[in-house]
Amino acid sequence: MRLSRPLVSGLALAIALSLPAGAAFAQRAVSGDLEQEMTPAQFKAAGLQKLSPAELAALNDWLQGKVAAETEKATTAAAAAGSSTAALAQAREEGRQEVINKNRGFLDFGSKDPIESTIDGEFTGFGKGRRYVLANGQEWEQTEATELRVRKDSPKVKIKPGLIGVWYMQIEGYNTMPKVRRVK
User: Fold this and answer.
1) Within 13 Å of residue 48, how many CA atoms lie on the same side as its CB?
2) How much of the chain exceeds pLDDT 70, in percent?
3) CA distances for 6 relative to 63, 119, 168, angstroms
4) Which is nearest to 143 in space by CA: 99, 114, 180?
5) Angle between helices 5-17 and 53-80 (to 10 degrees)
6) Three-state DSSP state, 68
7) Coil, helix or strand for 142?
């Protein structure tokens, strides 16, 4: 079976969450099965509706097992290193915060605070399908046909969360706010 790119990206995110730096948060982040964790649109975009109930159950079991195994490895490694409870708790919290900040915008992940940065380079306006690379390393793609024709060099940008995992991008000085999705 060949996995679709969104599924592989989702699995990579789940595995990354399960690494030692994010072990405590990872266990909570993927507590349900994929059908519960994803919106119906994300589930369909990942091609998971094509799986039989048995195949989907096997994939969910594998994912839960991977998270549990990585969490156990991280806990064992920390204990073997002689970490104190307070130091371990602090390291877990730091790792959790790093994972939250690094993955904001993916799958309604992280806090609901706006993301503020600048466009990396020249901004040539809004248009459906355009990609915008931010100075913070994030890459966003416009998903609706809202247009704005303007040229600005490295403008300030604010990306605000909406309802049900939708995000809106706004360039400083303009009221136009198209829907965007994080792609990197």
Assistant:
1) 26
2) 71
3) 15, 25, 21
4) 180
5) 30
6) helix
7) strand
State mean pLDDT over 97-114. Answer: 66
18 burial level (CB within 10 Å; 0-12, 13-18, 19+): buried
How far apart, in whole angstroms, are the C-alpha atoms of residue 72 and residue 67?
Answer: 9
Consecutive H or E run containing 69: helix 53-80
Q: Is residue 16 classed as helix, strand or coil in its secondary structure?
A: helix
Residue 170 β-bridge partners: 158
What is the pLDDT, as a whole number, of residue 17?
47
Q: Output DSSP code: residue 114.
A: P
- SS3 of residue 92 by DSSP: helix
Beta bridge partners of 142: 180
The rounded distance, in Å, linking the Cα atoms of 145 and 179 is: 9
**Residue 76 and residue 80: Cα distance in Å, rounded?**
6
Query: Which of the given ranges, 13-27, 38-52, 74-88, 99-113, has the highest pLDDT on average?
Result: 38-52
Rounded-to-integer distance, Cα 21 and Cα 71, Å = 10
Note the Cα 1 to chain centre separation in Å.
25
Which pLDDT score is estimated for 68?
Answer: 78
Structure tokens at 72: 């156990």
d(Cα 99, Cα 76) in Å, to the nearest integer? 20
Q: Which residue is listed with tokens 């390291």?
A: 91
Q: For Cα atoms 86, 17, 73, give the angle at the middle one, nearest 5 degrees.
A: 60
